[in-house]
Design goal:
Length: 104
């Protein structure tokens, strides 16, 4: 699981990507209780989902245009990092498939 913001995490299983909005609470076993989970099958869709969620959060907590501008710059940098990582993963997968004679 990857921490994106204070309450936003990105996870995945063998079938999909999962965006978890965590409410900060844990169950009696110490596991994270999530307030919301969103599921995506494509990397581009999860990036679009993260963009929308982070933008809404930034607007909700900003008090003026200067503050929202600063928050948007930070969001842009985080999303650029995520996109770079997603591109590297995709490239590595394609190289692995090519080396093993598998088709994409």
């Amino acid at each position: 699981m990857i921490k994106i913001t204070e309450n936003l995490y990105l996870d995945a299983d063998e079938h999909q990507f999962i965006i978890i909005s965590w409410n900060g609470k844990r169950d009696k076993h110490g596991n994270m209780q999530s307030s919301n989970r969103r599921y995506y099958s494509e990397a581009s869709s999860v990036i679009n989902g993260l963009t929308k969620i982070m933008l809404r959060q930034a607007v909700a907590i900003s008090t003026d245009l200067h503050e929202i501008s600063m928050r948007l710059d930070e969001i842009s940098m985080r999303l650029d990092d995520i996109k770079k990582i997603a591109d590297r993963v995709a490239t590595n997968c394609l190289q692995h498939q090519s080396q093993n004679g598998l088709e994409a």
